[in-house]
């Protein structure tokens, strides 16, 4: 059976096709086909990279409107073809970033679910519209095939009230203003994979997962249950990110409007797209470019890096306080998986926790490995997050 996964973000569309037998394998299988559409790498338009049949194809895409169809066509045509027809697909899973308070589990998509995703667009304006577009495109193409929404918020619905409710007048909590948390598919996958790699029961572990990609968040996971996370009502709270500021004094946006005449749209753009690593460095929101600029003695890039790490270290401390202890620290996503220097600096500032990195292991491009020193009291893992595989499993479960 074939399961298609669409993982739409603000500036990219990742997609995979898995071929599955009767039961789900213990470790993630290699997808049959993978496509990645990126709108940030080209001067104009987007770049689609497709991998299948041991080949890699690059296609320039001009218009966003036709992009998803071009991406899907590579499944059934050309050198990357792996299916005779779209009708061979048995189920489709979608990453949906914001599911609100209602969805604590993956669910089959119907009109009510689509309405809920649309109604949450103001809470995740860079993500939910793209998720909805993916769902509607597939609906036209494969009206009979079950589509499953897997929510980034679902894993966090166990967070206790003291961590969930903001200190605003209570009526706003009743109206839905609360901590939702995001990247839940990745945090959950990484916690389960941790138990697998260490061959220890998940129920015996206190874990902090650091999802450091374009968006960044931490989760505090006790016995497999999420008890706290750094993102909140929207994916803007918490850590400093590529272009998002993370937590700042809430008076600042008010002051920006009063003093500089910015309107709501301007402030929204400033905090979500012009801040973070990009805003401080003036160079880029991409950690690779920041590190390159630092090696060229760019002081603003160095400052951006220092703020990123300082805030990351403090936030890990807060998650450890929530957990009242720590057994495993996990690094994942683009920065967490690939940047040895970010891992080294983070761990260096946490030695009081009994956490000690093995520098050689850290520098050896670890994937799904423990990189802590032998005598470290806390394990340190690098895990390749496989959100797509987690989504595929949940979509598969709806077909049996
Ligand atoms: N070798 C690397 N060193 C440092 N950062 C990296 C490296 N490779 C990728 N990244 C970072 O990972 C980020 C993307 O992470 P990813 O998890 O793919 O993001 P998302 O899914 O949020 O789009 C990039 O912006 C880049 O900063
Ligand atoms: C929720 C979120 O921030 O997602 P991403 O990191 O993919 O932008
Ligand atoms: Mg991501």
TrEMBL record:
GO cellular component: cytoplasm
Enzyme class: transferase
Active site: 152
Organism listed in the record: Waterburya agarophytonicola KI4
Positions bearing the site annotation: Transition state stabilizer: 183, 244
Quaternary structure and partners: Homodimer.
CDD domains linked to this entry: ASKHA_NBD_AcK_PK
Protein name, entry field: Acetate kinase
GO MF annotations, alphabetized: acetate kinase activity; ATP binding; magnesium ion binding
Residues where Mg(2+) binds: 7, 387
Record's cofactor remark: Mg(2+). Can also accept Mn(2+).
HAMAP family for this protein: Acetate_kinase
Keyword match Transferase: yes
Keywords tagged on the record: ATP-binding, Cytoplasm, Kinase, Magnesium, Metal-binding, Nucleotide-binding, Transferase
